[in-house]
Task: structure prediction
Amino acid sequence: MYIREMNWIREGGVVFDMKRINVLIVEDQYEDMEYCASMIEELSENIVLHKCGTGKKAVNIISEHSIDAVFIDVILPDVNGFELAGMIRKTENYRFVPIVFITGENRNYVEVHKRYHHYEYIRKPFTSTEFKNRVSPLISGLILEKKECGGADSARKHMILVETSMKKAIIPYDNVLFAEFYRRKVCLHTDKEIYSGIRMGLKEFIGYVNRSSFKQTYKSFAANTERIQSIEREGRSLWTIHFDNGTGGCLLGKTFYEDIVRTFVERSEKSNG
Result:
């Protein structure tokens, strides 16, 4: 049940701001916390800041508010910042929330990203310009996604955070068509763009997306079954999947055929019935 209160919506004890994004800063050094907060606030007026100095308080905040992005200092008094990120990733609805690590530690960036799928890893000390340049695309993207998704359906529930060798992007799941595993990396096909060079295996990426409608269709392909328009036979045990925007190119193999067709038929019957 939703209770509307002007620009706010309350759902199950959690308050959603329909227009602004909620950003959490977890930093135990007060001066560093306020420095980050001031720079984030300068990026947009559509930001509500939440601040705390421990992992325990951070967990309480994400359970009480709909947090859209989290900035975490790696060194905290009660828990390691990476451990806190792991706890956040396991929390319902926070699997894809953008996480920015802020630290003076010299960690292996690739290994950290592979484990926590964070948006940024900013090393101290940093300048205001550097911080804003690296964080601004995240903030502007979240604000845009929240406006497009609307109100209580907070953007973080609908997006997938991906990082390629060339760029980072926040992609609405509804825009995803299929993924292809090529040269040991995932290539993600969407309505607007193709994102190449995602450093994951196909099964790992399917688990990362974590949607029941995103299924493997071939040894090197996985598809958003909600977007399938038709399935065309190509050979004795091979089919091509076509999507509702006219895009094709996703292969369907015999091993996965029955499951994909059953899902497609059930969705079609539900939408028609």
Summary: The domain at 159-272 is CATH 2.40.50.1020 (OB fold (Dihydrolipoamide Acetyltransferase, E2P)). Residues 1-18, 151-156 have pLDDT under 50 and may be disordered. The chain has two domains: 3-155, 159-272.
